[in-house]
Amino acid sequence: MPGFQTALANAAAGCDAAAARLAQVAQRLGDAAFQTPVDPELLAAERQIADAAAASAQQLRTDPGLLHAGRIVLHEGRTVPLIVPFGERGHLATSVDARVEGVANLVRTAILHAVGTREPGGLRVVGIDTATLGASFAPLRPLADAGVIEAVATDTRAAADAVALAEAQVAEHIAGRRTDRMLLVVASLSEAPRTLVERIDALARSGLAHGVTVLGCGLPELPQAAVMHAVDGPASQGRVAITNPPAAPFGRGERLAAPVDWPETPDPSFVAGEALRLAERAKAAATLTFADLIPAQPESGDPAKGLEVLIGRDAAGEVQLRFDDATPHWLVGGRTGGGKTVFLLDVLYGLASRYAPSDLALFLLDFKEGVSFTEFIPTDRDRSFIPHARAVGVESDREYGLAVLRTLSEEMTRRSTVMKNYGVASFAKLREHEAYPRIVCVADEFQVLLAGNDKVASEAVALLEELARKGRSYGVHLVLASQTISGIEALWAKQDSIFGQFSMRIALPGARTVLAANNDAAARISLGQVVVNTEGGTAGADRVARFPDTDSHVMHRLREQLGEAHKGVGAPRVFYGYRPVHLAEALPGERKPGRALLGREVSLRLDAAGADLDRRPGRHLAVLGSDPVGGEALEAAAESLAGNGTRVLAVDFTGNADLRAATDRVAPEAFAASLGEIPDGTVIAAWGLDAAALDMKAQQALRALLRTGPARGVHLLGWWRTFRRFTDDIGGSAGREDVACALVLNLPGGEIMGHFGPQFQHWSPRAGRALLIDRHADTGGGKLVVPFSRMEDQAAPGPQRSGGTPIERTRP
């Protein structure tokens, strides 16, 4: 603006009197002045001024503090650009809104100028257009897609949210947390409550110095603004009178002493092309690669006061998210294909590169089909892994997720005791004495864990509530990810108490319930963008960022680097919910004399599950159910015993058993007669006992063996495919204690609870799982196990385990 004023002053030198007379005539007569004969001397002075002004205006076109807002109309058909202070130098208002074509042109001109004259990321645009439902901004759609235009409000409620965004910008600017600028464009605001207009006025008063510029169309009383008044009357020809800008007046009067035209309607292809060019520029500046998420100095972060990770960029620059006291837990939502898995990988690899394994422990749970977390574990083709990962569940069972939550709860209790011993009350203070790692537990599709209204769901809800409330004090953080959190029956009474602790809300495209009900920000973003809201999803507190796609080469290189730097850290425990398990994969320490191995526990440690065959009464095993895996589990049990020197006597009533591990065999027709002649120290393995058709005498012999056998080292491992036949053979309720161990397959809880107890009424059988009951060891409802199957059914390696405790610590 100073350059423009200087040019006018120089051009007017020597003809002040003529220029003053011209101004007086124009002010008095308006357009009529141009129909009255004018002194040639005045026209010459006007031409001199116009030429100088036009040249100066062209030089000032790229100044971000000045806006070409129309054209000043002179004699002889001449016009010169109207330049007004804008951006950091002033607001602009009009007396009519964008339903007038010239005002709509002004809106688009102002946005393109403001965006184009600032560095990418230096300006955020928020719009309000209630009268035309956003039509004023429609030609600028590429800028909205790129996130430069963050929101366009088309109703009163959304308009209030847009104003709240601008108010937050001022607050953040005052606090020194933002340095970018916001342009609040009110294209139209029909039937707005007075309180909303007053809020806009307050923004105009304080915003100029604190990061907000207002273009208020239809708001002629806007404070600290140059105002363009539409001139009424038949001779006005749609022209405008503009008041003096408060910070840089045109002259001594109240307004410019010449009529003004609204900006001309530009070629639509120019607007579309310019919007696309600026959008592509913004996208390029806002785009990070996956490699950019990895810090230049790996493992340099200090977790004492929180964890920080770079996830992408927005219009203001890089976006860093934190796990700390203010945002201890994250709730992440997004539809299938919306980029949720990519976002989680960005976050977790960013954390793993920034913090050492001794400072960060990851527990990763994926409850649905997918490969979300296979990038953290060894595979057949790539043995590298992320050493921060302590336990990983791929297509996890609900019970496995529950086991992880129990472990985290126990860890909080342990840390609480240690903190009391040291007399400290925060995790940061605890780190001064012992370097416990911060824990991040990610549960993808966590709603599966809470499905239904059974014991697993109710215990999981209780544990989640405890972790959500207390976790921040002990360095334990949750990330719950899902397509939706609505309709989860187990959460009906606890939803507010749990999710109220999740102030960090992260919404990807298609997220429906992560943000507040009146916040539709997730509906306005595209693939590769994410809405970050640290106010519990409240409308007006959103930040839209663009995050990168993953890069398999960078991920592999990071795994190798971390593996080389931490050779002493074992691979994580991995639970593959979809894979069978096999006895051949049992570790040497798991094969013990007198222990019949049957499968793997669905637990954090993934220990081998089995039955100890000692001399206590009742140490026999019944495999119950018609599922063929029962026969295969019995084969594994026989092999595990025979491999440790136990004599195994096998009998097969099914004709399908693999008896190669047996020391001796007995023909099915000779089984009943042999029951009274079993040598001491023998384990009988019997397949299909329901088909043995034992008569009363044989049943009595069997019952006698069950009662007296353990004392002399004789044990029965029997597979009954029908539950009724099993209870008949052992003598019903009278023989209940004579068989202490059972592996229950496809028999529902309602069928077995009468024999084993009411605590098993909720057992629901499913493929590839079994319930292991041991009356002498169980205090609850048994153990869920994955029964061993034959190797020929193997589709891929089974679970892998590392040594060490689930959560290790080091002293500083």
Descriptive terms for the model:
single chain, 812 residues, alpha/beta, Rossmann fold, nine-stranded mixed β-sheet, 19 helices, 31 strands, elongated, disordered N terminus, disordered C terminus, FtsK_dom, P-loop_NTPase, ATP binding
**What would you call the shape?**
elongated
Number of strands: 31
Overall number of structural domains: 3
Task: Label the structural class.
Answer: alpha/beta
Helix content: 25-40%
Strand content: 15-25%
Unreliable stretches (pLDDT < 50, length at least 5) are 1-34, 793-812
Instruction: Identify the CATH architecture of the largest domain.
Output: 3-Layer(aba) Sandwich
CATH level 1 class label of the largest domain: Alpha Beta
Oligomer: single chain
- The residue-averaged pLDDT reads 87
CATH topology (fold) name of the largest domain: Rossmann fold
Through-space gap between termini: 61 Å
Rg for CA atoms: 38 Å
* Number of H- or I-type helical stretches: 19
Task: Record the strand order, biggest sheet.
Answer: 23-22-31-30-29-24-28-27-25-26
* Sheet having the most strands: 10 strands, mixed
